[in-house]
Write a structure and sequence with these properties.
It contains five helices and eleven strands; from the N terminus they run αββααβββββββββαα. The protein has helices at 16-28, 68-76, 105-112, 253-262, 266-281; strands at residues 50-53, 59-61, 130-138, 144-152, 158-163, 180-181, 185-189, 194-202, 208-217, 222-230, 236-246.
Amino acid sequence: MIIKQKARPVMEILTQIDIENIKENSKSNPVFQYYGLRKLVSSKMNWKEVVEVSDKGLILIKGNCDTGYQHINERHNFWSIKPYSNGKEFQAQSKFPEYIAPIEFIKIADSIYSLENFVIKNEHTEADKFEKYVGDYSFDGENFEKVNLILYKNTKIIHSLYPQNKRYNKNKNKTKYPYTRGQVKVTTDKLFKITEIFVPFLDINLHQKYGLVIDQTKEDDIEEWNILSFNNDGKYEGHLLFATKTKTKFRGDTSARITFQHCNLKIIEDFLLEMDKNKKTK
C-alpha cells in the first residue's frame, strides 16, 4: 500500500480571541490553582484547551502539530518518529534527551522563563506573533545547555520549547539521506506461531519505497531478513533475501516494535543506496 504525504494545511496557531479565552480559562479553572496538577492530554480534547499552568504562570495548551504541547512532543521529543521533509531533504529537528519525559516540558519552560533570558532582538520568522527566551538548562544535573522558549507575544502561553543543539537527534548527520523510517509494525500469527516485523522506508515525499521484513518462527532459532521494493505508485516490485541470523528474542510485540523503530539499521540503509545505484545503471 502506498503511503502518501497529506497536503500541508496553513499553519494553525492561536488567534487573539483564542488567547483571551485561554488566559481567562487558566485563571478561572480550579484545576490550575494548584501547582503540579494538570489535565491528561487526550485525542478528544480541543487543541486550544489548557492542560497545565506552571508555578510562574506559564500556560501549556494541548495544541496541534503547529503549536503547544503536541507540537513540542512531535517535533522535539526524542522518541517521536514523525518525519519532517522540505521536499529536498529530511530536516533533523533538535531533540530533548531520551530520558526527558513530556511531563517535564513545563518544568523546563519555567526554568527558562525569566527577564534576563528575554531576547530583545527576536529573529523568529514571525516575531510579530511570538517572543523568545533563551536560557541554560541542565538535563543531566551537571552540564548546561541552551534551551529556547517561544511564547505568544505579550502572554505566558507556550508556543514551543526546544534545545538549541541537535546533539540528541540520532539522525542529525543523515539529513541528506533519501529515506526515513516509517512506523514499524509487528504482527504475530498465534496459530502458525510466526511473527513478522515490518520496517517501512519512505522517500522524501513520504511514499513507501522499500521495506525490511523480519520473519520469526517460534520453534526456529533463525530469522530471515528480506528487503521489499516498491515502485513510485507504491506497488510491490519484488524482494530479496538480505540475511539469515540468530533470532532476536523480545518480551513481546511492543518490545520488538520499539526496538526496530529506534535501533541502528545503517547496514540496511547503506544497502538501499546500493540498490538505488544498481537500478540507475540498468
